[in-house]
Write a structure and sequence with these properties.
The complex is a heterodimer of chains A (213) and B (392). Chain A has 11 helices and no strands. Chain A has 213 residues and is mainly α. Chain A is elongated. Chain B has a 5-stranded mixed β-sheet with strand order 2-3-5-1-4. In chain B, strand 2 and strand 3 (206-218) form a beta hairpin. The chains are: A mainly alpha (213), B alpha+beta (392). Chain A binds chain B through residues 16-19, 21-22, 25-26, 29-30, 33-34, 37, 43, 47, 50-51, 54-55, 58-59, 103, 105-108, 110-111, 113-115, 117, 130-131, 134-135, 138, 149, 153-154, 156, 181, 184-185, 188-189, 192-193, and chain B through 5-11, 14-15, 17-19, 21-28, 30-31, 33-35, 37-39, 41-42, 156, 250, 254, 257, 262, 265-266, 269, 272, 285.
Chain lengths: 213, 392
């Protein structure tokens, strides 16, 4: 259930040992940040919310009973905080993904360099566009559906673990995942249809312009 | 438009796309910012706790609590028969076995605390210097026993402690040597010292000296050594300062960890790099990170050293032993003076006894306060309700 020495760290952190908490949270920071990024669709908001989540974890570690898995408990806090943030703002902050080019730290550049060093500039552009496109489509879902899709298909959680993370029954998780899958499929296909139409219209416009000449 | 046109994607394809999404790296300062926030939130929580207590204790509530406290003390004191009786043994019994043993062992001159009573012990200084080291050992033994039982909340904090003590003494060289021995025996060291003659009478063979000494003491021994130093001469002034560097320390430590991770990552990338240009760029970044790491680590080492040892500055002045000429007959003013000082002494002793008794009964007093406080609150609320009902 726990990683090495995790239980000892939890117990120390519960007693207020900040160092133990630091050791504990360092392994989950990236997961929390990535879930928040997928949920909110904006790196700045994701950073703020992830930090808020980590502080919430620190403050409420006392009420964590060691029965459930720590990561499902952490995901629960993360998802709930993200949903609260989305509802608080009452706007779909996830549709932008404007930070992709703006807020890139050195590590991100190096990571891209590491992953993409074999790709041509054109391939790199296509890959980046694809990534942004998928994230935009995920963000067209309701927050609840977004959460189950992220936990199931990006974080690879089992149904039981998702039920634990979202504090709902297994049946609810299954039906929510089915509905989310259908909606995501619709979104992918609708967007594709629209893009096709736009491409066709552009082509027709271009042809008629040339024939007039 | 047929069905095939509509369903361009099946979910397996979408699932593959979702799983191919790369993980996003954390922002560079994420961890260090987080730790700073957590540290601040801990501090704020402490402040909130105090605020809530202060809010509870409004002037009216304070006066009620004070009245109840006073009443309780008077009632308990009367039943215990403590007030008005200068029975020191009785109050010592209440302090507990270990403390009374300690008091009896060192009662030869240890009655003054560090902040203590300057009047009582101002002249009998030089004789005590050789015994100071022995007392120090006994006191340190007691402290070590007590430290084993009590976990100090300051242990997790990085606090640099400094004390300044100004002493007057008859035996300048003896006191200086005692301070040296104290620091040496406690595992500390003398950082610097200086002395000079400020007044000389060669005809009488009298040379009065002034000087100072700066000692670094292991933080565990700081309190005991400070008390000891305060006891080997007449204390003219004392001051104490602390600098809490925990927040800065945690921040630098987090930054160091982040830089070490970056360094490892860069080294991994370097292994896979093929072009000279890339290697040069990576090498430049690596050297930047290394120099930053070195600077952070040396800062942390410096803090560790400062925290591990506390500093005590002692300013020493040698004074002349003045002989007091006593008149043969006591005049009226002297008698009044003696009588007055005797009554002051009585009051002081009674107050001391009361303080000792209070320390011994603090738990009972607290329990009483809680019970009486609860009763008073219930009575007040009940009275208010009754008044409201009557008004209606």
């Amino acid at each position: 259930m726990y990683k090495d020495d995790e239980l000892e760290l939890i117990n120390k952190a519960k007693k207020g040992d900040i160092r133990a908490f630091e050791e504990l949270i360092i392994g989950y920071e990236k997961d929390i940040y990535n879930i928040a990024y997928r949920m909110l669709g904006n790196a700045n908001d994701a950073e703020d919310v992830s930090q808020e989540v980590c502080i919430k974890i620190y403050k409420s570690l006392n009420i964590y009973n060691n029965k459930s898995k720590l990561y499902t408990w952490i995901y629960k806090i993360t998802i709930n905080t993200c949903i609260d943030e989305i509802r608080k703002n009452r706007k779909n902050i996830g549709l932008k993904y404007i930070d992709e080019n703006i807020n890139v730290g050195e590590s991100e550049i190096l990571q891209q360099y590491k992953d993409d060093k074999e790709l041509t500039p054109e391939d790199k552009y296509i890959k980046k566009e694809e990534k942004s496109d998928i994230l935009q489509k995920i963000n067209m879902l309701d927050p609840d559906h977004r959460a189950v899709i992220i936990l199931r298909y990006i974080n690879n959680l089992e149904y039981e673990e998702i039920a634990e993370s979202l504090e709902c029954s297994l049946g609810t998780v299954k039906s929510r995942i089915n509905r989310a899958k259908k909606k995501l499929q619709e979104i992918f296909n609708n967007v594709e249809q629209k893009e096709k139409k736009v491409r066709l219209n552009n082509k027709k416009g271009g042809d008629s312009h040339e024939s007039k000449r | 438009m047929n069905q095939k046109d509509k369903e361009i994607y099946d979910f397996d394809e979408i699932e593959k796309k979702l799983k191919s999404l790369p993980e996003k790296d954390l922002p560079v300062d994420f961890h260090s910012n987080l730790m700073s926030k957590i540290y601040k939130s801990k501090e704020e929580e402490k402040m909130k706790w105090w605020d809530s207590i202060l809010k509870m204790l409004r002037p009216r509530e304070i006066s009620i609590v004070a009245a109840v406290l006073l009443l309780t003390i008077v009632v308990i004191a009367q039943t215990a028969g403590v007030i008005g009786v200068n029975n020191k043994n009785q109050s010592e019994m209440m302090l507990g076995q270990s403390l009374s043993n300690y008091d009896s062992t060192v009662s030869g001159g240890m009655s003054n605390s560090f902040s203590g009573d300057m009047f009582a012990n101002s002249t009998a200084v030089s004789e005590e210097a050789p015994q100071a080291a022995m007392r120090s050992e006994k006191k340190m033994d007691l402290d070590s026993v007590m430290n084993q039982k009590v976990v100090n909340p300051e242990d997790n904090l990085k606090i640099i402690k400094t004390a300044n003590i100004t002493l007057e003494t008859l035996d300048f060289d003896g006191v200086l040597q005692t301070i040296r021995n104290l620091s040496k025996n406690s595992g500390g060291y003398v950082e610097n010292s200086s002395s000079y003659i400020y007044e000389s009478h060669p005809d009488k063979g009298e040379y009065l000296k002034k000087g100072n000494i700066k000692v670094r003491i292991p933080k565990e021994q700081y309190e005991s050594i400070k008390t000891e130093v305060g006891n080997i001469g007449k204390v003219i002034s004392t001051s104490e300062g602390t600098e809490n560097v925990t927040e800065n320390y945690v921040e630098i430590e987090s930054k160091t960890k982040t830089l070490e991770i970056q360094q490892e990552r860069l080294l991994d990338i370097m292994k896979k790099a093929t072009k000279v240009e890339e290697l040069i760029q990576l090498e430049a970044r690596l050297s930047e990170i290394r120099s930053q790491l070195e600077s952070y680590k040396s800062q942390m080492k410096n803090w560790d050293k400062l925290v591990a040892y506390s500093t005590i500055y002692v300013d020493l002045t040698q004074v002349r032993n003045l002989e007091i000429v006593q008149p043969v007959d006591k005049n009226l003013m002297q008698r009044i003076g003696e009588s007055f000082s005797s009554s002051i002494n009585n009051i002081r002793m009674t107050t001391e006894d009361l303080a000792v008794w209070f320390a011994g009964n603090i738990i009972i007093i607290i329990i009483n306060i809680i019970i009486y406080g609860a009763l008073i609150i219930i009575v007040i609320m009940g009275t208010k309700k009754v008044i409201k009902m009557i008004k209606k």
